[in-house]
Amino acid sequence: MARFRTHLFAFALVCAATLVGCSGKSGIGITLSPSTTPTISQGQTQTITATVSNDSANAGVTWTLSGPGTLSNQTTTSVTYVAPTVLSADTSATVTATSVTNTSVTTTLSITIDAVFEITSISLESGTVGVPYSGTISAGGAATPFTWTIISGNLPPGLTLANSSAASVSISGTPTAVGTYNFTIQVTNSEGTPVSQSFSIVVNPPPSLTVATKSLPNGSVGVVYSQTLQAVNGTAPYSWSLQSGTLPTGLTLDDSTGVISGTPTTAGTSTFVVQVKDSTTPTAETAIGNLTLAVDPNAVNDSLLNGTYVFQVNGFDPNGHFMAAGSLVADGAGHITSGIMDSNDPANLQLGQSFTGTYLIGQDNLGTLSLSGSGRTFALVMAASGNARLIEFDGTGAQAAGVLMKQTSTTVAAGTFAFGFLGGDEQGNRYALAGEFTTDGAGNITAGMFDADGAAGPTPSVAFTGTYSTGLNGRGTMTFSAGGQGTTNYSYYVVSPTEWLAVEIDNISGQSRRLVSGPVLEQTGAGAFSAASWMNASVFETTDLQTAVGSNTPQSQVGLLTADGSVNVTLSADENTGGVLSSPSAAGTYSVASNGRVALTNSGIAATDPVIYLVSQNQGFIVGTDPSVTFGFMEPQSGTFTTASLSGNYAGGSVVPMQASTTNEIDMATADGNGNFTFSTDTSNAGSGLSLDVSSSGPYSVSANGRGTLTQGANAAIFYMVSPTEFWSLWESATGSVEQFGQ
Description:
- By secondary structure, the protein is mostly beta strands.
- It is built from one helix and 58 strands.
């Protein structure tokens, strides 16, 4: 091969000497220096110059390379060849010079590169006690396999040399001692040739414990806030404390997790100092961090609540059954400018309480409403209709749910009304009644009838009369006088001429008598109801307390009641009894009196057949005939349903709780029409407390009859669609909560 290269070089010299016939008709010739094949080692360089003869343009040459390495510093007369820094064997490269004036004229120079077996790494990074370390040493200039060993000195404690036959070897582990550690690495190639090199690794002491969180994102008034403080170095686990300053009102620091969380209530900036303590033994390290947290005024939707509203809540407080009704005026800017309320429980009857207050509604249409002087705060969710669902949301121990409705009238016209009232009896047990009565426009209630249900069983078809009068702000009072049962007194607040919200105002100190409340709705078709007044499907919900299967076990149903307009009714429903789910079905009969009272046989509803008082076609109040005290409502279903039927924003809230331990909640649920739900939720539970603006999401599906399933984070529910704008859900929890959603 060397002889062949010599011949090529001689041929180039002949061409340069004769100038004609071998390199081109132009007579241009190229001479390279060096003129013979040089030999260099890996990583070295070779400068090459070119002399071009007979080139009138004096344009010089261009350079190209074939083989390993690179060319640098290129000009028209010279170039530098750079050999590879690492080779596993001897090799060669060829540099070609080409005339710029006549590209057919070329001359080449071959360069031999000798591989040098050596360790190419020159140093290693320092390490830190307790911090994982990894360093790499490489060698080249020979063919693998290699053998790596430490021939003198020691690695830092905690580090080891890997077992490697490749061209590199790693040193890794976690250093355990501070110091400078010197050692010599030897590598032997496949031919048994060794080379070695000395190295040092410096191991530094661990860095001090530090609060890594240097800044916190802003919070917003009324919006749930959660940020976790971070620490670095030291020994986990860490504990945290507030050393000085104060957190924004409504926020707390969890000592064990370093989480700052809560719901800010006041805009402003808070500056404070936190301390973190690690678990180093025998002496723990501590560090402090100076932090600032700004709380911005919330981007609010307070204008959604603007005008005069009527509200009602029903549930429990520490004294027993609690209920209230009233009216208020909201200014659209977060202020309750005036209000009046009647409330009642076994310890305290308060009539005509005047109040003011504040409210805050967020971008998700969830908000809070606080009534001054009463200590009561409610969480609310605003629907597109302008009405809202309420739950008690304060520290009074009350667990109540209800509604807030736009008031459109303050007067009551003559007409016939149906009602459904729920609460407790003289012993504090569950008690309910439903019925109908007529107002004559002159303050008299006539032709009244109700069915009552309590722990002792039902009291059917009780006739009564009474009186009523309406005063300022749509607040009125009425009496029911029933033979053998005495007179009961109520206040009511007019929502519209067709709807009132009533609460019993008898003094029941010590639970000496019953206490109930509920809505009053004008009947359509009063006095002329018949079997044809119930035809096709109605969606219904009921709740009761099942004493037969345990001590006050909550039971709830949501489903379909389908009547044929004649005599037959079928039930298809889902039931939750203390967390045990079932899907009852039944086929029974019904009859309808002219006043709208419906008698059922074999209906399959709850414990036994209830009575229904119709409000209008396929709509009515449900009251039980059983000691478990079934109570509920039904509405006419309209439509054939698909997943796409459920689309848009739905404001949801719990119905009246069955027990003081029941979890009440309100939701803003958004369905995308493609099977996906998102929720923003406020919950109140006597045991676990209050939870504000919790976000969750999950899938849903809908069958043709309107029955669907949904998932809300870790919770699941079955629901029935009343229409594309309304559905009722039954949560798969031990408390069997029922929630009504509407647009």
